Amino acid sequence: MPEIIHKELSDIVNGCIFDVHNEAGPGLREECYQKAMEIRLAQAGLPFVSKPRTRSELLYLGKTADVFEPDFLVADRLALELKVQREGLTTANFRQTVNYVKPWKLSRGLLETIESKADSSSKKKQ
Q1: Residue 38 and residue 74: Cα distance in Å, rounded?
Q2: DSSP assigned state of 107
Q3: Would you give per-residue pLDDT tens digits along the chain (126 residues)?
Q4: CB 112 within 8 A of CB 12
Q5: Domain limits of the chain?
Q6: Contact, 77 vs 107, CB < 8 A?
Q7: Of 80, 101, 104, 120, which has the maximum CB count within 10 A?
Q8: CA distance linking residue 126 with residue 112, whole number of Å
Q9: Rounded to two decimals, what is the model's pTM?
Q10: Contact assessment for residue 6 and residue 107, using Cβ atoms and an 8 Å cutoff
């Protein structure tokens, strides 16, 4: 079995995400969860940088070809991207997170989804 990179840090970040979701509940805008995560990561004592300070440009021939802006850079080791999507995560979401890892020379990216209100009610009906 392959070794999980930065498992302890990832576990702490995942715990923070669960805390935020349990406290705030489903159905909020992504920006609300991002702000709540800033508060929770600080409370956990994790060093992080959040949008817009995470912005990095891909330069080609001296011009900006693309801009990368993950939601969080945590402990200079991982990129964290939060999503609130009724449809669930897409291949594009995974690609986006992988693309965030390279500009900062990080070894891990976490893509996390927070259940939307619509998802919550549809699961209860099943």
Answers
A1: 10
A2: S
A3: 566 678 899 999 999 999 999 999 888 998 999 999 999 999 999 999 998 777 788 888 999 888 888 899 999 889 999 998 877 888 888 988 888 888 778 888 888 888 755 444 333 333
A4: no
A5: 7-125
A6: yes
A7: 80
A8: 23
A9: 0.79
A10: yes
